[in-house]
Amino acid sequence: MKRCPDCNGANTLEILLSSTQFVFAVPLVQRKKLLPKCSGVKACACADCGNIFGLKLENPEKLAAFADGIQNG
Q1: Residue pair 17/41 in contact by the 8 Å Cβ criterion
Q2: Exposed, middle or buried: residue 72 (CB in 10 Å: 0-12, 13-18, 19+)?
Q3: pLDDT digit of tens for each residue in the chain (73 aa)?
C-alpha cells in the first residue's frame, strides 16, 4: 500500500473520484477547436490526514486526441 506524502501514514486506500458529471479536460492552449474529453479519475486517499494524492486518469487514451491536436496544430 502507498504511504501518504503529507503525513507518511500507511492508512491509505485507492479511490475513484466521482461527481454527477465527469471531469473534463480542456487544454490551456487550444490550437484547434477540440471537444472536451472525459475520463474518470483514480487517486489514493489518506484516512489519517485526508490528503488525496496520486491522481491518475482512468482512461488516458481518451485524451490522446488532445495531445495529437496540440502537437500537430
Answers
A1: yes
A2: exposed
A3: 789 999 999 999 999 877 666 555 555 565 555 555 667 788 999 999 999 999 988 888 877 766 665 555 5
What is the secondary structure of 12-30 as a DSSP string? Answer: EEEEEE--SSPEEE--SS-
- Beta strands 41-46 and 12-17 are antiparallel
Cell numbers for 34, please give them. Answer: 477540440
| Grid cell of 69 as nine digits | 491536436
pTM over 0.85? The answer is no
